[in-house]
Write a structure and sequence with these properties.
single chain, alpha/beta, Ribosomal Protein L13p, Chain: A, 4-stranded parallel beta sheet, two-stranded antiparallel ribbon, 5 helices, globular, ribonucleoprotein, Large ribosomal subunit protein uL13, Ribosomal_uL13
């Protein structure tokens, strides 16, 4: 007699429920904001989380220019990239990157907390970071979320 009453349910593209979430970065610390946004993008806050499926939400982060960094990170934290040519290593401090585009500072932090594979690249496309409060996704009516509610 088969009396198994519990079944493991795996989410897939058809059964996933994706929502639009609005996160305000004003006064937030960069790392804490990025880790919680990564949880939203990944879908780890949902009961039907499946590790190999994009079951996270679409996230819009506003007020990226009002982010905080603690300690000496503004001057000592460096972002290193390579051009691909010999001796082509370039670096920027957090202040220099912030002056160029504050939204890139948030994007780089969140991207570093996502998986380093095709799924991570797909999840990163669900993130929109803007300076100021105006964003292009007002038609989707994103639900404002407090970051302290996310574990």
């Amino acid at each position: 007699m088969d009396t198994l009453s519990y079944k493991t349910v795996s989410a897939n593209k058809a059964t996933v429920n994706k929502e639009w979430v609005l996160v305000d970065a004003e006064g937030q610390t960069l790392g804490r904001l990025a880790s919680r946004v990564a949880i939203l993008l990944r879908g780890k806050h949902k009961p039907n989380f499946t590790p190999h499926v994009d079951c996270g939400d679409n996230v819009v982060v506003i007020n990226a220019e009002k982010i905080n960094l603690t300690g000496n990170k503004w001057t000592e934290k460096s972002y290193i990239r390579h051009t691909g040519y010999p001796g082509g290593q370039k670096s920027l401090t957090a202040t220099e990157l912030f002056e160029k585009d504050p939204s890139r500072l948030v994007e780089k932090s969140v991207k570093g907390m996502l998986p380093k594979n095709k799924l991570g690249a797909t999840l990163f496309r669900n993130l929109t970071v803007v300076n100021g409060t105006e964003h292009a996704h007002a038609a989707q009516k994103p639900k404002a979320m407090k970051l302290n509610e996310i574990n």
